[in-house]
Amino acid sequence: MAETPPAHPQTAEDLRLVVEHALAKTRGAGDSEAIASDQSLRGTLVEQPAADTTLPPMRTEELPLVAVHPTRSTDASVNAAANESEWLVRSLLGQGGMGQVYSGEQRSIGRGVAVKVATGEREARAALLREARITGRLEHPNIVPVHVLGVDEGGVPVMVMKR
User: Fold this and answer.
1) What is the pLDDT at residue 27?
2) Contact indicator for 2, 20 with CB cutoff of 8 Å
3) Lowest model confidence (mean pLDDT) among 14-23, 94-103, 146-155
4) Interval 80-98: pLDDT, tens
């Protein structure tokens, strides 16, 4: 070990010394895994393998009904299904360029949810589908969990997520 790192690093050089010291201690501990030399780590970005971000096509006809505007439908069977829907939509929380977000409730367990509905044409609908499918695969404290991806009475994509 060349130099002892400072107790409270304040400069880039101080941080470099802390990292070099930690690496030297790890090597000295007899770590069986090979550790790259300090020189090979400096200024080098290691590319991670690309995650499979391609999503297969999705048929919205196969998604569950999330009744958002049951009174707008003239079809009695749709209104009946809306009354039986698992998700009850209450009031508009906000809207943006791609859609509207409503406050709602999951009836079976009484939990509050947010319901996002695409309001634009094809591009907004495709974007909401993609957002729901990708976000639904992620798990992190700063990412809102997606509970379900469905469609409203008109076949428009709807994402139900944590409120």
Assistant:
1) 58
2) yes
3) 14-23
4) 555 667 888 889 999 988 8
Confidence of residue 101 (pLDDT cuts 50, 70, 90): very high
User: Are 129 and 117 contacting, i.e. CB atoms less than 8 angstroms apart?
Assistant: no
Q: Would the pTM of this model clear 0.70, i.e. be above it?
A: no
DSSP label of 65: B
Pairwise CA distance, residues 67 & 82, whole Å: 5
Nearest 10 degrees: Cα torsion 83, 88, 93, 96: -70
Which strand ranges, in their side-by-side order, compose the sheet holding 146-151?
87-95, 99-106, 111-118, 157-162, 146-151
Would you say 115 and 27 are in contact if contact means Cβ atoms under 8 Å apart? no
- The β-bridge partners of 118 are 99
The first and second tokens of residue 124, run together, are 């907004």
**Residue bearing tokens 């360029």:** 97
